[in-house]
Write a structure and sequence with these properties.
This protein is α+β, with helices and mostly antiparallel strands. The chain has three domains: about 110 residues, Rossmann fold; about 150 residues, D-amino Acid Aminotransferase, Chain A, domain 1; about 60 residues, Dna Ligase, domain 1. Helices cover about 35% and strands about 20% of the residues. It is built from 13 helices and 15 strands. The strands form four sheets. Strands 9, 10, 11, 12, 13 and 14 form a six-stranded antiparallel sheet that branches. The chain has a four-stranded antiparallel sheet with strand order 5-8-6-7, with helices on one face. Strands 2-1-4 form a three-stranded parallel sheet, with helices on one face. Strand 13 and strand 14 form a beta hairpin. The longest helix is centred in the last third of the chain and has 18 residues. About 45% of the residues are buried. The C terminus is likely disordered.
Amino acid sequence: MCTDVCIVYNEPLPGTFEAAGEGAAVASVLDAVGAVTEALGVKGHAVHHLPITPAGYNLIPRLRELNPRVIFNLFEGFDHDPESEGQLAYLLEKMGIAFTGAPSRALIDCIDKVKAKSRLRSLGLPTADWQLYRPGFPLEPPSPNLRFPCIVKPLATDASHGLTERSLVSTFPEMREQVERVHALYGQAALVEEFLPGREFNILVMGPPLRIFPIAEIRYSLSTGKPRMLTYASKWEEDDEYFAATQVQCPALLSESCARTIEHLAARTFTELVGRGYARIDMRTDRTGQVMVLEVNPNPDIGPASGAKREAEASGMSYHDFIREIMAQAQPVYDEAPLHTIVSVP
């Protein structure tokens, strides 16, 4: 048996995020699966779906049976095991199977926001100051160089999981309450990061060869007193004030110098932290107007309502062509770094 393209993704199941009232983000992978299937089908590809769950029989025999030419990797990891996203990519690397998107090392390092920020700092790339609070350790006030207000977020999630308007804190008691909330709801460390009050941007990058898409700006029209930040509700809850008051301008209206700064930062960040595939780089300006890198998101959402789709279309590329371009970049990648893999299919 030989499958042309096998779409691998995580089967949406009840878990940590659903318990936190954030199941919509997890379920959205099915929208991406449907859209990718349609785009590839139009091109004549035979597509097989392979959902993955935390329990079941081993994935390797199933992949050998299917013998796909290319894996279209939409796997987002398990909510209780963020590194599982990178572990799947590592398994495909070891098997020598061509797959779309970022290599395993990028997925593992970038899901851990502190690893990514530390790497940015080591390269001389600007990012906001931060402090990490792990569960089970004394919760002390932040160091003097970390200025309030701050954002409190889970260490290793994406899709704005864990972000509400109360995540913006101005005092230590407020910070402690939110750190404890992250520990309790998500079972992981809490990142406390200086809040950058300026403009907010994101930009899609692909490569190699390096391709930078039009810059998008997140614009807020919230009522007075509401923090200008991209909460979970901003992305996923259509009946929420934050959803209605969060718009995206793409291409962003920017001076030439500001646009070049953002593009340069995005290019360096992608080259150094991701390397290949596609990624969304999130940025924001600080009190002085300096552009800072917030997060690095390899293999971001590419579903029909995604920012990636918006930016691809703003560049003049159709959505179907964007999906096919992602697949055209797929290639086997070999990484000999040791890494355990625990991935199963139903």
